[in-house]
């Protein structure tokens, strides 16, 4: 998988911000995560569960307009992925070269104005997080707008219902598996958001997993994924080529994680997507090297390397130890997490590893 450097850098910066600002939320076990996914399904009237900050596909949830402060009912009815060749003219007009894209996501939505004043389109147009771009509500199907019209000139009147099928051009394989639709300021922790592929269809739903349980920080659906199995987690006082001083001068020790990586896709994937973030509460413990995550990988057989320097090839399997710095004395507080949802990094969208 050829990954755009822009998205890699942004995702890492976002993780740094979260680690500095986010707290340690109490995670559920893998079984509990599955139970929660089942209990969060739509009720008989299709309304979203108020206790969660995301909606399932087909659920109706209330959204308060970011600008209008008016309530509306929003339903993401369906999301389908179609071949880029079937939308050649549109993609070339909007994005340019068809060869630089992978596919197109079609988002079927219904919005009802439940307020007393007009609601502008800017209050409900979602962001497709993996592409960091707003959904184009004018293509391929809209009741009144033609492709290329400015939707921000339009409003929904009180009581009016709007149905449309919008789109987002995808530049990499299986981006729908690493994306969500974000509303209202585009912050996942603010909610609500909608997974572009339901959690029930993911190899690893968000939640907490233990040792010897394979997790997939990269999921390509039927085309495989990047699996990681954690066998053991322990500490080392020092690691070759890694400093023992953190970003703020704190003394570091190193969390060692014995793992097995396996790439079952037909794409090369950066090891940056295979290594987790390691945090201790509000303390930042991700080391930097030229703006990238400095996670050291030492294969069982072979030479050590930095995660950002190497790709795991299609069909490749590797036994190795990952090293990540933690503040000395806080090793027992370490939180091992993956953030598989691009541009939507929050405590509610993580895959956590329980080393105990």
Short structural description:
The chain has 356 residues and is mainly β. The protein has 2 domains: 57-197, Immunoglobulin-like, CATH 2.60.40; 202-353, Immunoglobulin-like (Sandwich). 10% of the residues lie in helices and 37% in strands.
CATH architecture identity of the largest domain: Sandwich
Number of domains: 2
For the termini, the CA-CA separation is 33 Å
Task: Output the CATH class name of the largest domain.
Answer: Mainly Beta
Please bin the fraction of helical residues. Answer: under 10%
Q: What form results from the Cα inertia axes?
A: elongated
Query: Helix/strand/pairing class, anyone?
Result: mainly beta
The largest sheet has its strands arranged as: 14-15-16-24-21-22
Number of helices: 3
Give the biggest sheet.
6 strands, antiparallel
**Low-pLDDT regions:** 1-46, 282-294
Fill in the CATH topology of the largest domain: Immunoglobulin-like
Q: Which H/E pattern describes the elements?
A: HHEEEHEEEEEEEEEEEEEEEEEEEEEEE
């Amino acid at each position: 998988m050829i990954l755009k450097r822009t998205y890699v850098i942004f995702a890492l910066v976002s993780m740094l911000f979260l680690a500095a600002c986010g707290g340690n939320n109490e995670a559920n076990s893998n079984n509990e995560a599955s139970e929660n996914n089942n209990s969060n399904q739509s009720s008989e009237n299709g309304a979203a569960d108020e206790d969660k900050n995301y909606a399932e596909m087909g659920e109706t949830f209330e959204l308060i307009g970011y600008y209008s402060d008016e309530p509306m009912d929003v339903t993401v009815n369906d999301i389908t992925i179609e071949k880029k060749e079937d939308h050649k003219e549109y993609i070339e007009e909007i994005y340019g070269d068809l060869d630089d894209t992978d596919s197109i996501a079609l988002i079927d939505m219904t919005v009802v104005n439940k307020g007393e004043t007009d609601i502008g389109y800017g209050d409900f147009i979602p962001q497709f997080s993996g592409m960091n771009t707003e959904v184009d509500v004018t293509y391929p199907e809209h009741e009144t707008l033609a492709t290329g019209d400015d939707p921000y000139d339009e409003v929904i009147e009180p009581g009016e219902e709007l149905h449309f099928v919008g789109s987002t051009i995808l530049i990499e394989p299986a981006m729908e598996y690493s994306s969500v639709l974000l509303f209202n300021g585009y912050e996942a922790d603010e909610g609500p958001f909608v997974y572009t592929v339901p959690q029930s269809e993911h190899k690893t739903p968000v939640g907490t997993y233990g040792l010897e349980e394979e997790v997939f920080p990269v999921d390509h659906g039927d085309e495989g994924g990047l699996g990681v199995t954690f066998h053991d987690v322990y500490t080392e006082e020092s690691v070759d080529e890694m400093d023992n001083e953190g970003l703020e001068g704190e003394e570091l020790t190193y969390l060692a994680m014995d793992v097995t990586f396996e790439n079952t896709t037909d794409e090369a994937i950066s090891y940056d997507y295979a290594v987790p973030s390691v945090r201790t509460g509000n303390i930042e413990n991700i080391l930097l090297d030229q703006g990238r995550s400095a996670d050291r990988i030492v294969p069982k057989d072979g030479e050590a390397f930095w995660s950002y320097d190497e790709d795991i090839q299609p069909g490749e399997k590797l036994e190795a130890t990952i090293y990540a710095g933690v503040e000395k004395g806080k090793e027992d507080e370490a939180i091992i997490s993956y953030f598989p949802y691009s541009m939507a990094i929050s405590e509610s969208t993580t895959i956590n590893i329980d080393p105990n």
